[in-house]
Amino acid sequence: MYERFMKRAIELAKKGLGRVNPNPPVGAVVVKEGRIISEGFHPLFLVGPHAERVAIESAKRKGEDLTGTTLVVTLEPCDHHGKTPPCTDLIIESGIKKVVIGMRDPNPVSGSGVEKLKKHGIEVVEGVLEEEVKKLCEFFITYVTENRPFIALKYASTLDGKIADAEGNSKWITQDLRHKAHEMRNVYSAVLVGARTVLKDDPRLTCRLKGGRNPTRVILDRRGILSGGSYRVFEDNARVI
């Protein structure tokens, strides 16, 4: 019943991927009489309100009466004062009668929104497209539950398991993989390589997607073999460690 609205909320949340870390990407839509009347997503970690607030305030600016409406949001609304006031308070004040969430917030600091909403007579529906939402929030879930960064290993090999020929020469195997590398750089906070990768490939390690963001570039060089050299990884507008 709510899947199509949650799918739209997930699409909106993806706009914040790579820009809200270590917070989760969140999307929200307000539904009235079976149609979406407003939308919102969390755009940046240090700037802007949460997705729920964006969607609710957008509806109000349009002159919509939110009494009896439904809010569909990927993550349980927060119930604590952080950079912004609790989203639960705004939801309660707005007259929304039902909140549909994809997953509960695993962060114990803010994960009590469902209980507060129910206490104020708001119906809460949980677990809509939950696995898709968890996949969307895997960076955040790992950070909160395991106290470590989410790490992905990217490499390309031939069918027989080789990444280079006998002389150490290698090249891109497919254009699809090349595009995937830039998609990952756009959403991950950092990309890490060893000094010999820089020596051999002289990579930029930047994101060349239109509108993409550059990750921090981390180079492991304990022997200082790159000192004094001129490499493309030290160019462009991206942080290097």
From TrEMBL:
Listed EC numbers: 1.1.1.193, 3.5.4.26
SUPFAM superfamilies: Cytidine deaminase-like, Dihydrofolate reductase-like
Keywords: Hydrolase, Metal-binding, Multifunctional enzyme, NADP, Oxidoreductase, Riboflavin biosynthesis, Zinc
Annotated coiled-coil segments of the chain: none
Domain CMP/dCMP-type deaminase: 1-125
PROSITE patterns linked to this entry: CYT_DCMP_DEAMINASES_1, CYT_DCMP_DEAMINASES_2
Pathway(s) served: Cofactor biosynthesis; riboflavin biosynthesis; 5-amino-6-(D-ribitylamino)uracil from GTP: step 3/4; Cofactor biosynthesis; riboflavin biosynthesis; 5-amino-6-(D-ribitylamino)uracil from GTP: step 2/4
GO molecular function, one term: zinc ion binding
InterPro entries registered for this protein in UniProt: APOBEC/CMP_deaminase_Zn-bd, CMP_dCMP_dom, Cytidine_deaminase-like, DHFR-like_dom_sf, Eubact_RibD, RibDG_C, Riboflavin_Biosynth_HTPR
Pfam hit, one: RibD_C
GO BP term (any one): riboflavin biosynthetic process
Cofactor section: Zn(2+)
Purpose: Converts 2,5-diamino-6-(ribosylamino)-4(3h)-pyrimidinone 5'-phosphate into 5-amino-6-(ribosylamino)-2,4(1h,3h)-pyrimidinedione 5'-phosphate.
Family to which the UniProt record says this protein belongs: In the N-terminal section; belongs to the cytidine and deoxycytidylate deaminase family.
Protein name per UniProt: Riboflavin biosynthesis protein RibD
Higher taxonomy: Bacteria, Thermotogati, Thermotogota, Thermotogae, Thermotogales
Gene: ribD
